[in-house]
Write a structure and sequence with these properties.
The complex is a heterotrimer.
Chain A (H helix, E strand, L loop, with lengths): L1 H28 L13 H11 L5 H14 L12 H36 L4 H15 L2 H20 L12 H31 L2 H8 L4 H19 L1 H19 L4 H11 L2 H29 L1 H4 L3
Helix pairs in contact in A: 1-3, 1-12, 4-5, 4-7, 4-10, 5-7, 6-7, 6-10, 7-9, 7-10, 10-11, 10-12, 11-12
Chain B lengths: L15 H4 L9 H11 L1 H23 L18 E2 L11 E2 L10 H37 L1 H15 L3 H11 L4 H12 L1 H15 L2 H8 L4 H38 L10 H10 L6 H28 L6
Antiparallel strand pairs in B: 1-2
Helix pairs in contact in B: 2-12, 3-4, 3-12, 4-5, 4-7, 4-8, 4-10, 4-11, 6-7, 8-10, 10-11, 10-12, 11-12
Chain C lengths: L3 E14 L2 E14 L3 E5 L6 H8 L8 E10 L2 E2 L5 H7 L4 E4 L3 H4 L6 H12 L4 H14 L5 H5 L8 H13 L5 E5 L7 H18 L2 E6 L2 H7 L2 E6 L2 E7 H6 L4 H8 L40 H5 L5 E4 L2 E3 L11 H4 L3
Parallel strand pairs in C: 3-8, 3-9, 6-7, 7-8
Antiparallel strand pairs in C: 1-2, 1-4, 4-5, 9-10, 10-12, 11-12
The chains are: A mainly alpha, B mainly alpha, C alpha/beta.
Chain lengths: 311, 317, 335
């Protein structure tokens, strides 16, 4: 178990370094000078920037300084907003985290349930229904889904009922979270439920389920005590990519629903060519994802006894 | 006990023919898979859909009276089925089947032009995925040892960064365009394929029938060609089919962020992005490209599922 | 006089597949008495596992179907029993151990807990008592350090130990009948012997009847009291072990015994096998199932299925050669 943890930690750190390196070199390849922008700068300011970012030093030193800055939380100054990137991040990220967590919980729990039901009631209408929902989630990109939901459940319902049942913009109340979280989560729900269904079908046809039946357990007991627990394992392994997908999904969902999260800033910074903002956000998101994946991996190591005892 | 006539006890002995008779004819693996696939109605419908969409994308713009760049300032945001009233245009008197966009361009022509771009991007990236992934995974899996360890560690590290983020970074650096999207996606898109192929090769290498082939004196080339490759092929084909919707999704996503195909060329993703801006008032401008995107992704996904079921020997009944 | 634990009469089980109806079991009649070991032998696909699983109704009921027949287990009518009734019977009055112990135990639950689950289901014991009982069961099957072992997971056990643990689990509620479906096929020979010894010992201690399903006649000779030989979904011969080995009457039994390699065979004598394959049960032959491969096959064998002939109390065989009207070999024209 200890070896497993150490291995995962080392990979996480290495990946982080690769990411920061990538961002650094990308930014250097961009046209224009990201650190100076178009504004005229006084000599003292210039001297300050040189000291901070080593703009007058060779590339390798700049790289090390950038690495050092990133690891201590200094992600540069946003050109558009003229504020430290980290400040913008810490303000807006909470909103994104809120949205993302809701979507994730929705996707995982509903996905597991849907997949399990589809497997247990295989071949019946429940199976087809679950898989139909999954198919929609897999084929309709989240932002298109968001726009469509905005139109039908937001505007049209408002026309019919005169009241705002599902708000289509902004953030603040529980109602505001419904449509965006749903649109964001449906794609992941689809993947989780399809995987869960396959896994459950595998488990249900396995020999130890036969043994459980031969001991006289009822179907419900078999499902809860033996089938579900073992079937959920593969789902845990895809939690990493699921979190990544929800994360990248927040960028576009926040734009569509006008939610003041980090994703929206990120998308606008791409349009504005605010390179420091882009780079800084990428490093932040990348680091966040690496941490999440690490946590998921460690969690899996705890749940699966076969890994626990690898020592 | 009833009496039975002695003649019925005439000796017959073993019948060599009957004793070896097997009720069902044996099929090769591919034959069996193809037979199962052809019985899968959903998969057939998906193939038909894909072919239809491809044919429309290839040929529809050629037969349309409108050019995809042609703008009709007097007839912007026209609804579906409206008739062109611009005398200077070739399409005078013809119907705009899907209406026009904010600049008066015929949406029908643009949709199918967009289809060309989206489908070409999707298929090209899938092929690059296939080739690079197979080579990388094949080498890593077949040779094993330190080479394998290094190659796989490298992959794990790169894989830790979400690929859309890498693609975004690349797109910022390179000039926007179809080639760029293909390159950007291809830089990291092959990683899942490589892992899959490597996993397959490693598992197959250990199978007893490989040892049996070696014991019978088969050369490594023959082993790879006749035993390893065909058995990985089925998994690889399924993966390629499922990689295409990913590519279409990525293209749409990038377009929405603003990193897609530059105007006036269009792709389904860029059309969707334009459509979203006008969605409240002219919903079809979003809905039509959205349907095209979704149908294509759906068709490839379901076809990929059908392929996977057809190739799974455990499902053979 | 020992009590009769199991009576099967005229059992017919079919599977409805997309290719048609597969008649897996085509009229099987068997019985097992208290404390005796009945071995069911036959080739793969002859229907022995299906018969055994039908006793506990473990086959998924679509696509499996009990077409006809009756099964009486310790007074319970199995064929007409409801799901709830079956749940009370399984594990309690009848238990089963399977071929591959690795896949037969839940890989993510401790072994001890899996045994406790059985005990708590059918016996009214508290948690602590059940735990102690589970450890006692492990001890009974000669697993060393049972307290420690109970806390371990299946993959930490060796193959032979896993099978012992399965046996412990099966016997934890003192069932009247234990069905062992090829329990030693997946183990190597020395472990096989240990497991069979253990079964023999336990049988005497707990007085459980055992149905042993196997294709290995050597194992049969060691432990079985009676043997039923199955072919193509039917029982072709039953009798005591001695009768089957030394006084067999059915050509298939003869062929099976002949195909056993023996140490008195000369080095250069070819190994005997039975040429051909069993008939396809999608379209079973209207005559005797073994006709195509039988060197004594007669005209009537291909036209009609032979009835069961009783040779003495307990020894039965289904072969037209045993019909009183059947002429001698020369008269038939046989070589």
């Amino acid at each position: 178990m200890a070896r497993y943890i150490i291995k995962r930690l080392v990979y996480a750190v290495l990946t982080l370094f690769v990411l920061i390196t990538l961002v650094f070199f990308m930014m250097r390849m961009l046209p224009g000078d990201p650190f100076l922008g178009e504004k005229a700068i006084s000599p003292t300011a210039l001297a300050n920037m040189n000291a901070k970012y080593g703009l007058d030093k060779p590339v390798f030193i700049q790289y090390l300084m950038y690495m050092g800055n990133c690891l201590t939380g200094d992600l540069g100054m946003s050109i558009t907003y003229n504020r430290p990137v980290m400040e913008i991040v810490s303000e807006s990220f909470l909103v994104s985290a809120d949205l993302g967590t809701r979507a994730l919980i929705f996707a995982v729990i509903a996905g597991i349930l849907l997949g399990a039901i589809a497997a247990i009631k295989r071949g019946t209408v429940w199976d087809s229904l679950s898989m139909f929902i999954a198919m929609i989630g897999v084929s309709v990109p989240s932002f298109i889904l968001g726009a469509v939901l905005q139109y039908f459940l937001g505007l049209q319902l408002r026309k019919v009922f005169g009241v705002n049942i599902f708000p289509i913009q902004g953030w603040g109340t529980f109602k505001h979270t419904l449509l965006p979280a749903f649109a964001l989560g449906l794609g992941s729900l689809a993947t989780v439920s399809r995987l869960m269904r396959t896994s459950m079908l595998d488990v249900l046809s396995s020999d130890y389920i036969k043994t459980a039946r031969s001991k006289g357990l009822s179907q419900r007991q078999i499902l809860w005590r033996h089938a579900l627990r073992n079937a959920v394992m593969p789902v845990v392994t895809i939690m990493g990519p699921t979190v990544a997908s929800v994360l990248t999904g927040t960028f576009v969902i926040e734009s569509i629903f006008n939610i003041p999260g980090l994703g929206k800033y990120f998308v606008t910074s791409i349009k504005d060519l605010d390179y420091t903002m882009i780079g800084g956000t990428v490093v932040f998101y990348g680091a966040l994802l690496i941490v999440c994946t690490l946590v998921v991996d460690l969690l899996y190591g705890l749940i699966d006894p076969r890994v626990k005892l690898e020592d | 006990m009833e009496h039975i006539d002695k003649s019925r006890f005439a000796h017959v002995g073993e019948s060599a023919h009957d004793r070896e008779a097997i009720a069902r004819p044996s099929l090769t693996f591919t034959q069996d898979a193809m037979r199962r696939l052809s019985k899968n109605k959903v998969a057939i419908v998906c193939v038909v859909l894909i072919v239809l969409l491809s044919l429309m994308s290839a040929f529809a713009p050629m037969f349309s009276p409108f050019d995809y760049r042609e703008q009709h300032y007097g007839h912007t945001n026209a609804p579906m089925f409206s008739v062109c009233d611009d005398e200077s245009s070739e399409g005078y008197g013809h119907m705009h089947l899907f209406g026009t966009d904010t600049l008066g361009r015929d949406l029908y022509t643009r949709i199918w032009m967009g289809g060309r771009v989206s489908l070409i991007i999707a298929v090209t990236t899938a092929i690059v995925d296939l080739i690079v992934g197979c080579i990388y995974g094949g080498i890593s899996g077949y040779f094993g040892g330190t080479l394998d360890i290094i190659m796989m560690r490298l992959l794990e590290i790169i894989n830790g960064i979400p690929y859309l983020i890498i693609v975004i970074l690349l797109m910022m650096v390179l000039e926007p365009g179809m080639m760029t999207i293909i390159i950007a996606y291809s830089t990291v898109g092959w990683i899942p394929m490589a892992r899959l192929v490597r996993g397959q090769v490693v598992a197959l290498k250990q199978q007893e029938y490989i040892a049996a082939a070696e014991a019978m004196g088969a050369s490594p080339a023959r082993i790879i060609a006749k035993h390893l490759l065909p058995n990985t092929l089925s998994v690889v084909i399924v993966r390629v089919t499922l990689a295409i919707p990913n590519a279409i999704f990525s293209e749409a996503y990038l377009s929405y962020i603003g990193l897609g195909i530059p105007l006036p060329k269009c792709s389904w993703g860029s059309l969707a992005q334009l459509g979203i801006q006008n969605f409240r008032m002219y919903p079809w401008q979003l809905l039509i490209p959205a349907i095209c995107i979704s149908l294509t992704m759906l068709a490839f996904n379901m076809f990929g599922d059908g392929l996977r079921d057809a190739f799974d020997p455990k499902l053979r009944r | 006089m020992a009590e009769r634990v199991l009576t099967i009469e005229g059992l017919r089980v079919s599977f409805d597949t997309y290719a048609g109806e597969v008649q897996a079991v085509r009229g099987v009649t068997l019985h097992v008495d208290e404390g005796e070991v009945l071995a069911i032998v036959g080739e793969s696909g002859c229907g022995k596992s299906v018969t055994a699983q039908t006793i506990m109704k473990l086959n998924p009921m679509p696509p499996a179907r009990i077409v006809d027949g009756s099964i009486n287990l310790a007074g319970h009518d199995i064929v007409h029993a409801s799901d709830k009734e079956m749940q009370k019977i399984r594990g309690n009055e009848v238990a089963m151990i399977f071929q591959d112990p690795m896949t037969c135990m839940n890989p993510t639950t401790q072994v001890g807990k899996q045994i406790v689950e059985s005990i708590k289901l059918h016996r009214h014991l508290s948690s602590a008592e059940a735990k102690a009982e589970a450890i006692r069961c492990l001890e009974q099957v000669r697993i060393p350090n049972p307290e420690e072992r109970a806390k371990q997971y299946p993959h930490e056990f060796s193959g032979g130990m896993r099978q012992r643990a399965m046996i412990a689990m099966a016997l934890s509620c003192n069932p009247k009948l234990l069905i062992a479906d090829e329990p030693t096929t997946a183990l190597d020979v020395t472990i096989q012997a240990q497991i069979m010894e253990l079964l023999a010992e336990l049988k005497d201690k707990i007085n459980t009847a055992i149905i042993l399903i196997t294709h290995d006649l050597g194992v049969v000779a060691g432990i079985a009291d009676r043997v039923a030989v199955m072919y193509a979904g039917k029982v072709v011969e039953t009798g005591t072990t001695d009768e089957i080995f030394y006084e067999h009457k059915h050509p298939y039994t003869e062929a099976l015994l002949r195909s056993l390699p023996s140490t008195d065979q000369g080095k250069h004598e070819p190994l005997m096998s039975i040429p051909g394959t069993p008939p396809d049960l999608l379209a079973p032959p209207k005559g005797c199932g073994f006709a195509a491969r039988c060197r004594h096959c007669m005209q009537i064998c291909k036209e009609e299925q032979p009835p069961e002939f009783e040779l003495n109390a307990g020894h039965k065989a289904s072969c037209w050669l045993l019909h009183p009207d059947c002429p001698s070999a020369e008269e038939r024209g046989a070589k």
